[in-house]
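Table 4 source record.
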Amino acid sequence: MAKHILVLNLLTVTCALVVAFEPSPLQDFCVADPSGSARVNGFACMDPKLAQANHFTFSGLHVAGNTSNPLGSRVTPVTVAQIPGLNTLGASLARIDYAPWGVIPPHVHPRATEILTVIEGSLDVGFVTSNPENRLITKVLKKGDVFVFPIGLAHFQRNVGHGNAFSISALSSQNPGVITIANAVFGSNPSIADDLLAKAFQLDKSVVGQLQTKS
């Protein structure tokens, strides 16, 4: 009997939590106010009476990014940092340009799923599943193809065509974040101990030192 009462109590608490959760917005929008002193999961809202069209606008996504860099790629983000009106709406965009054989190195978006559409060119894309399988799921995409990178999984893109390429990505957060694996591991500040990295990656400490210098 006591066990049945415990189960009923747990169900009651669970239902109460579900009912108490309000997924719908309680106002039309919440334009980000970076100067706000409130500490919330996101930016504080400015007075909605002060909202203007420019708070919901970004210009220039048609302009190709400069890919003259060692990676041969350039990301043009359209997040809450560029459009304050995206605050709390759970959506953002990015244009990604690639020189021939340009890459977006393995990275993670800790707060967003990404759906990528190839606009021009051919891209080799993929992601790696979590431990213990660490299975690589990869595909070469052509113009008009779409691919999904699940939230939190390491993924990459590479231009495998003979000319320039570009893609558009939609992300399920106004502030998806990005963690580039190599930079995080070998370029942290302060540095992760080189003997730890040498053991973790089964590398000579001198190689670890070189990687840390490059990152």
